[in-house]
Model the fold of this input.
Amino acid sequence: MLTADAQKRKSYHDHSNQIKSMKKILLPVLFSLAVATVCRAAEPYHFIKEIPVGGDGGWDYASVDSAAQRLYVSHATKVVVIDLAKDAVVGEITNTPGVHGLAPCPDLGLGVTSNGRENKA
Done:
């Protein structure tokens, strides 16, 4: 049998342990929510519009030539060229088997593709 004083200490000790347990659970959850909120607020990308491209096969990387306002999208054995001012497909760069991506070189007026099926650029 516990004395009144011992019961108070036990009750205080139990309450203190409950608070510590809640802190162990709540602090990581609150920290995760805070980080997620900050990351979400810093997200620079958002959907603006959809430009239909079409075609069969897989898609890979996209790259932008901001000076020429062109978007280059790797697609199976070709690179689709999209005019960003017109939001329309304006051409294709063909004969690029297994193309992974295109790196535009605006100063030279050229672009370099990485063609996986040929193992060359």
User: Anything to note?
Assistant: Strands lie at 59-65, 70-75, 78-83, 88-93, 99-105, 110-115.
